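#structure-requests
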Amino acid sequence: MKIKILLVEDDTSLGFIISDHLKSEGYQVTLCSDGAEGFKRFNEEVFHLCIFDVMMPKKDGFSLAKDVRVIDKSIPILFLTAKAMTEDKIEGFKSGGDDYLTKPFSVEELQLRLTALLKRVNIHKEVEDELIITISDFQFDTVNFTLKHPNFEKTLTKKEAHILKILCKFMNQVVPRELVLNAVWGQDDYFVGRSLDVFITKLRKYFADDQAIHIQNVHGIGFKLEVKK
């Protein structure tokens, strides 16, 4: 199993250099150029480690890390920054970072830091264990976007699948509306908000015949996928 890394770096040249080096070391790398795109991709795929530049357009690295930590408490996060001030390092750790690398740095040092971070987590765990999610009598295949029931089968659209995956991560908990919007669309303005409401309505219809499943609107906050045992 290849280790998948999400690299978010707005310096195009540096991003390609880091990406090429990591790929040559056997990693699978997804490169994004801003924080909003990075958060969207984080919710579309399964990653084992994140590398975030701090100063980026649309969403800075610290804000990105905070959003990621809402969804995943354990994935290692390494910050890249041109700043070496203690205050910035403290802010990085407070936002959920595990390590901090100051520019300029060598690819050898980067590799050593990644190796140390990966030793802290169980990267050998099979990702497939998380790809099929049970929702009452439904089986949700997060890779093939299929929703299966003994009397029902539906192939979801990409956005339907991503929204449902987020709701499942917070099953029986409230999910902030803006988190879903940023994760799926990369923004949270009025128009994409209306689109989200349409997708939520569609998901409700798919589960309509199962009384144990309910997608609740929590006024002023977001949504809650309630599944009774």
